[in-house]
Amino acid sequence: MKKGIFPLMFILSILILSSPLLLRAQDKAVVRVDRANIREKPDLQSPVVTVVTRGTVLQILAQEGEWYRISFTSRDKGVINGYIHQNLVEVIKEITKEKIERKPEPRARPEEKFVRPSRSERGRLRAIGFKLGWSGASLYGANVEEFEEYLEEEIKTKSGFNFGAFIIVNLNSFLALQSELNFVEKGAKTQGEAAGEAYKAWINLNYLEIPAILRFYLPAQNNFHFSFYTGTYVGLKTKGRVKAEVAGIKVESDIENLKSTDAGLIFGAGFDFSLPFLKTGQFCLDLRYNLGLTSISTEAGVETKNKVISLSLGYLF
After folding, report:
1. What gap in Å lies between CA 131 and CA 284, rounded to an integer?
2. Which residues contact 258 (CB under 8 A, 6 or more apart)?
3. Are 46 and 83 in contact (CB under 8 A)?
4. Which residue, among 248, 166, 172, 160, has the nearest Cα to 213 in the 3D structure?
5. Which member of 42, 62, 111, 154 has the lowest number of beta carbons within 10 Å of its beta carbon?
6. What letter would DSSP give residue 101?
7. Is 151 helix (H, G, I), strand (E, B) or coil?
8. From residue 227, how far is each of 69, 224, 259, 299, 313 by CA, in Å?
């Protein structure tokens, strides 16, 4: 019995001592599909860290079941660590250009049916989405200042809401064009006292806006993407009414000298992020400032313009 144990222990010792050499001989892999997800954890439900393309060389750090824990250096994002499924790569000892170019056609996998296009793919769809949020609107211009002096009260910000849909198309690794269709509540409010009576007044303006935006993306940090943008917008008026309340009496009427259009500049910042329970897509936070450049009054020489700050939460498909 003892004679059988010693050879077995000897064989196990050889395997244990040689295992680091075996791992070292297979410490790299090449991506064999067009696009593959690098995930935070070895799980199909785990958030996507980044997307790699065919021929990308990965350093294998360890194997956990059907997943490889890998590391590689991205030109845009620096060193990236994560996990990739073993069926998406081919483990290799040496990489040559000829071997990479002769990789077999990829096999379709359920997990790779939806992959957002790489940001480096010019002219490709980056995302579509919708958003809903709060707007704080007010008015500015020479005539607004004169009106404040007359009332001896300040024109204040009026709260409202905004919602809309958008589409984003890549220009290169860092730039993208964004087009939107939004509903935005604008206007202003004021309150004070006149002839011994307290009053409140609201200017309620609603617009359908069509912005054209150029967005600049900072290098991604895991599942977080920051961006800044600027652009222009054109707004089509859908409502223009003034409402007032004096001594408990409420009155409301249409604004007759109001233009049917509005136009101006947009400045903003965005923050896209993934959550563990999301299989696809991302949430996005958007902070924006709209500065009207055209007077909204039809009267000659009257300068009254819109300005709006908005905060919205959206979802990217």
Report:
1. 8
2. 205, 237, 240, 296, 297, 298
3. yes
4. 166
5. 62
6. H
7. helix
8. 29, 10, 34, 40, 15
Give me 127's structure tokens.
Answer: 């995302």
Say which DSSP state 27 is in.
-
User: Which amino acid would we find at residue 156?
Assistant: K
Residue type, position 29, single letter = A
Provide the residue ranges of all domains of the chain, joining segments of one domain with +.
19-112, 125-316
Residue pair 95/70 in contact by the 8 Å Cβ criterion: no
Asked whether 55 and 90 are in contact (CB, 8 A), the reply is no
Phi and psi based region of residue 215 (left: phi greater than 0; alpha: psi -120 to 50; beta: remaining): beta
CATH number of 125-316: 2.40.160
Q: Within 10 Å of residue 206's Cβ, how many Cβ atoms?
A: 17
- Strand order of the β-sheet with 67-74 is 48-53, 35-39, 78-85, 67-74, 57-64, 28-31, 89-92
pLDDT for res 122: 66
- CATH number of the domain located at residue range(s) 19-112 in this protein: 2.30.30.40
Q: What's the one-letter identity of residue 4?
A: G
Tens of pLDDT, residues 54-103: 888 898 888 888 889 998 888 777 888 999 988 888 887 654 444 445 55
* Rounded Cα distance, 263 and 296, in Å: 9
Both structure tokens of 280: 């696809």
CB 274 within 8 A of CB 294: no
Tokens read off for 196: 């011994």
- Assign residue 187 a region: left if phi > 0, alpha if psi is -120 to 50, beta otherwise? left
CA distance linking residue 33 with residue 53, whole number of Å = 7
| Fold match flag (19-112 vs 125-316) | no
